[in-house]
Inverse folding.
């Protein structure tokens, strides 16, 4: 388990079903998770059954972000789209609404960066952020991610099409 004074990162456990159900069924995050409909407990239970698979085999890793003081699950950190040849992967962070703006995402990234370099042996991480998501853009910039491009009208929202900013962090 990875730890800081504020948070810990741990693998998914069977007991995380209700936490994941709340997280995955929050319509506020559907736009960034490419979700159009609620996810059932049955589907999430099946996902939890396979969540312990090896990162190098399934090419993704989901860690629970826990609050150190209480042990409460406050969000998830996803490493996905792992490309072994190029030693790169995407990163995404989702924090439950009531826990946002407490520094949990910043602390999770701070723990992830050395882990990704030293343990997962990644050369770089990348992410896609909605152009109007100032908090996430600031979060990733503060963690050393640099803007490498903008995808025009990349995300469909209730208000119409929105640009997405591509960011990258070299780890070497």
């Amino acid at each position: 388990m990875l730890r800081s004074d504020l948070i810990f990162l741990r693998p998914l456990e069977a007991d995380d079903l209700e936490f994941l159900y709340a997280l995955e069924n929050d319509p506020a995050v559907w736009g960034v998770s490419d979700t159009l409909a609620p996810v059932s407990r049955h589907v999430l239970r099946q996902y939890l059954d396979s969540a312990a698979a090896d990162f190098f085999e399934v090419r993704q890793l989901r860690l629970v972000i826990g609050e150190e003081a209480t042990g409460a699950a406050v969000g998830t950190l996803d490493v996905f789209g792992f490309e072994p040849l190029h030693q790169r992967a995407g990163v995404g962070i989702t924090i439950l609404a009531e826990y946002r703006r407490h520094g949990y995402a910043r602390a999770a990234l701070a723990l992830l960066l050395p882990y990704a370099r030293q343990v997962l042996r990644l050369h770089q991480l990348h992410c896609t952020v909605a152009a109007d998501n100032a908090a996430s853009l600031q979060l990733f910039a503060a963690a050393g991610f640099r803007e490498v491009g903008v995808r025009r009208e990349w995300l469909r929202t209730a208000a119409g099409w929105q640009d997405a900013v591509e960011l990258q962090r070299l780890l070497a």
